[in-house]
Amino acid sequence: MLEARGITVHYDDLVAVSDVDVTVGSGETLALLGRSGSGKTSLLRAIAGLVPLVSGSVLLGGTDLTSVPTHERGIGLVFQDFALFPHLDVGRNVSYGLRAAGIVDTETSVAAALDAVGLEGMERRSVDQLSGGQAQRVALARTLATRPKALLLDEPLGSLDPAYRRRVAGELSQLLRATAIPTVIVTHDAQEASALGDQIMVLDGGRSAVSGSPDAVWLSPGSTEAALMLGHTCVVEAHSTGTSLEVGDVSLPVAVAEGQATVLIRRATIVTDGGTPVTVAYSHFRGPGWVAGVQLGSAILEVEAPQRIAEGEKIQIGIDQQDIILL
Amino acid sequence: MTIGSVGWPSGSRRFCAEMRPSRLLTIPALVIGLGFFVWPMLSILSTALGEDPGRIISLFGEHGLRSVVWFTVWQALASTAAALVIGVPAAYALTRFDFRGRGALRTLLTIPFVLPTVVVAVAFLALIGPQGTLGIDLAGTTWAIIAAHVFFNLAVVVRTVGGLWSHLDPALEGAAATLGASQWRIFRTVTLPLLRPALAAAGAIVFLFSFTSFGIVLLLGAPRLATIEVEIYRDAALIFDLPTAAALALVQLVGVTAALLVYSGRQARSATQQHLVAGTAARRRPRGRDRLWIFIALAPALTVVSLPLGAILVRTLAPGGSLGFGAFRALAAVDPAVVDPLRAVGNSLGYGIVACVIALAVGLPAATFIANRRSGSSRWLDTLIMLPIASSAVTLGFGFVIALDAPVDLRTWWLLVPIAHALIAIPFVVRLTVPVVRSMASHLREAAATLGASPRHVWRTIDLPMLTPAAAGAAALAFVISLGEFGATLFIARPGGQTMTLAIFRLLGPGNASRSAALALSLVLIAITAAAVALLERLRAPGVGEF
Fold it and tell me: Which helix (DSSP H) or strand (DSSP E) does residue B112 occupy?
């Protein structure tokens, strides 16, 4: 189990991470989600011992690592740009950690590590001849070859083509499960976080905005920033009269406490009867079906549509009371 | 070498921890810089101001010294102008066109810059000296001096101006053409303004080298013409008028510092403002009339460079018109009490190796420190290290002689010669290696640490192998600088410590005009220098620095 307690990191007078707790069990993956500058990479680096802590502690399997230097922590880190050593070939990159540990005969381990990431026989390849996906897998193999007791991945899919990403995410997820060690992944992509993480933590301004299982945090993100990071689009300022919620010029028949509020509308459906009339702003195909976007105040609410709906057409939507979250 | 622990941030670069190198890295530079540069310079200052500071003013009332300063300035300006006029067209032809032999011509134009100044003087004496190949004796005239300065400095213009020119975005000239500008108008209104930083930088360097020129003026200007540098030598070493020599050294320092400020100001600006493209993008194959223009553009530069080089080869290897080793026989026949050629070669190689070791031992730790810190302390160290460039070789040697007699008399210490050579080489070593150290992104070291490598292991397996090519290049450069050094060595070489440059000077000296022996030894020096330069070219990290 990897535990980080009350992690606080400062750069000069800038607070990068502030009092964040992390707990990841063996074989479990935590996805740190946040926009750039939210402190997710700093948190990862703090766990690896690459930045000094202002306060807090890092424990691995119950052992306090806070004052242990990076190279003795046994925590593997895959860097965002992979940080492959340009003066070493693929095999030498993968064997680097083994050699550092004084192991001379590395051939079999390297072959096994490359095999595990699907790059068998690439030992002699120069690292600048690798594609983005291959470089990512070499970096992963290099880290896994050292048999780390915990694994940290900084935007592991960040440099891959979007089309390629989902497939790699699936493979990576399987690989991580097989390693059976605590893993922390940094990402700014909500789908990637859900695909890879057993748990998700959304970081905002160096603090944890929300954390929990992917479905739980999606259902109640807790803050505007977290809702937007998790991929929600419809976060709007609304006014409640007590019996209805006024969003822009749309009036939703929802009973919430009277007053001004920021609300998240998680989902809505098109109904033929008894719904709220709205105007379609756009409609397009997004496999496997059509979606329509309707303007709701300053935000767009997307609903599944049976087919393309013409722009400007009036439709009725129904929103479940439980899909409206006060933030 | 000690390196701080991996990972603690310097604080200046957010989100990116970096190695914080130990202050211990600065110790060699501080010892050498303060002990062997600042202290000698302060000694010159105190000697110049001496008991009566008013003396300096009255000194320049003397017609002789005023004319020396005036001659130094105007010959430097004339040399600079001539080098630009001849060099810029050559740079144009070499950077804008892709033709057969381009690389060879570029190399040919670069050769003079690495030749020792004494050898340059020997080459010009062979060409336009008494009984010179061209049949006209210009020795002792300003023409000979300016021609030699142009020969020596063309490489600076071609490399600096050509370097920027080859990276100018051709789309800009294309855009001007679509807006209706003629070729000439495009050059005047687009190309020339964009090249201005490089022109100014090249001009400043050529001025600097011509202003502090010593060996060339001493040998080609004798007996009538003298620059400040030559006058310092005459006053200090021949007539022992130390206060006058010191006062002239001060004037020298002021002039050089001014030229350096222009240079560094231009360098800083040229790096930031422009959108530059890959070098090959701007080059094209010549068509039609292009060939004529290329010939016209290159002819003056090639003439200036190839004639003296040819003269030295012909006069050494084929004296009297047929191939023979007469020159080498003359060298072997020289009285060993005057010049011992084998010993001179041995001394030069030995000093070169020691200077190289000192330059690396001081320069590499300092470069590591400068590259990894962006604080005031790193800027101070950088300035201290660059200072010897602002002095001149003769001033440095003169400073050694007047400063290092107390508390311990070091003036006959054999190590002084390589230390002086190293001082001149260290700025180049640092400039060559700092970009490489900077480019060794800190995340590679961090990655190594997360893989379990201790700081010592990281240094050995990451830093060292990545630094080695640049360090080897710097070493070759330091070696070449030491081989060719003349001005400082002339002051501080002890009896029996004669180097090749001193031996050549001695062979050309009064009462001992063994011209052909000097030519032969020059050729040996050229050969050794060429071997070291070839090594340098092979080892230099691609894309780092223009020369």
Answer: helix B102-114
